[in-house]
Design goal:
The protein is globular, with a radius of gyration of 20 Å. It is built from twelve helices and ten strands. The two termini are 17 Å apart. It is α/β, with parallel strands linked by helices.
Length: 290
């Protein structure tokens, strides 16, 4: 199972300073827990939150969920200490904000040189500089720990002075380019948060837009968003029915060695067989984690 096949439908941010929230996270059906040391923690609580995050992950109990720690940027007074703490922790990944270019990935790779090989590097794409360096940033996945991106549209909107609207019109070009760059280099890519957590209809519409663009999942700010997010980013019964038909058709003796065949009256190529197998693999992994 490749890392991109691992379900990362829902990635929930939780403040490291909230012990009750971290305890509850062990029971929530999200695929990823992101313990936040950055935006969700006040400056005077940063050091205490760092200690709490490392301790909570050491305690375990998160089951199938991946657990990442979002650190403060290296250009802040807390960043270096955050990275050092995560490097010595049992976290699955470190999520770094405001990555601007490939040089930042190199810098982070050096800073994590003493960490276990299993520690992944995840990056936030949320600055104007980063959207003009998407491909070279993604290319670093071939030689560093980089394995996943998360879009940060709130920070990008602030820097651009753009208006955040339900359709996300100002950011559509960046969303599609981010997915394309990530796919070119095998990077998992998650959509940004939806600020609306009371109206789940609005949330679901945004999640479906993310699925349309090709995102692997979405980052979340509230537990109520988990269930609709998982539903949107899980293969549907119709998807799996199509996948089963494609796999069965290519397995027929008369179709051996063919690059294109008809399935249910439609031209179907080997690329569709690859897509079908991936859908089945993702569905099996989801089922195994329930």
């Amino acid at each position: 199972m490749t890392s991109i096949d691992r379900p990362r439908r829902s990635a929930l941010y939780l403040p490291a300073s909230n012990a009750k929230a971290l305890a509850k996270a062990r029971t929530l059906p999200c695929d990823v827990v992101i313990v936040d040391l950055e935006d969700a923690v006040a400056p005077e609580a940063k050091q205490e939150a760092r200690t709490a995050a490392v301790a909570a992950i050491a305690e375990g109990g998160f089951g199938h969920r991946e657990v990442a720690i979002r650190v403060n940027g290296l250009d802040t007074e807390w960043g270096a200490a955050d990275l050092a703490a995560v490097a010595g922790s049992k976290a699955d990944a470190v999520l770094v904000p405001k990555v601007n270019g490939p040089q930042d990935i190199d810098r982070l790779q050096d800073a994590l040189s003493g960490a276990p090989e299993t520690l992944q590097l995840w990056a936030m794409i949320e600055t104007c500089a980063s959207v003009f360096a998407l491909e070279p940033i993604a290319a670093k996945a071939r030689s560093t720990r980089l394995s996943l991106w998360i879009m940060g549209l709130n920070d990008l909107a602030k820097e651009m002075r753009a208006h955040s609207v339900p359709e996300r019109t100002p950011f559509l070009p960046f969303l599609s380019m981010a997915v394309a760059a990530a796919r070119a280099h095998g990077v998992t890519v998650l959509d940004g948060v939806c600020n609306e957590f009371r109206d789940l209809g609005v949330f679901e519409e945004e999640a479906r837009q993310g699925l349309l663009f090709g995102f692997d999942g979405k980052s979340l700010i509230h537990p109520a968003q988990i269930e609709p997010c998982n539903t949107v980013f899980s293969p549907s019964e119709a998807d799996l029915g199509w996948a089963a038909s494609v796999i069965a058709a290519f397995a027929l003796p008369e179709n051996q060695g063919k690059g294109a065949i008809k399935v249910d009256g439609k031209m179907t190529e080997l690329l569709h067989l690859e897509q079908a197998r991936r859908l089945v693999a993702v569905a099996e992994r989801i089922a195994a984690s329930v």
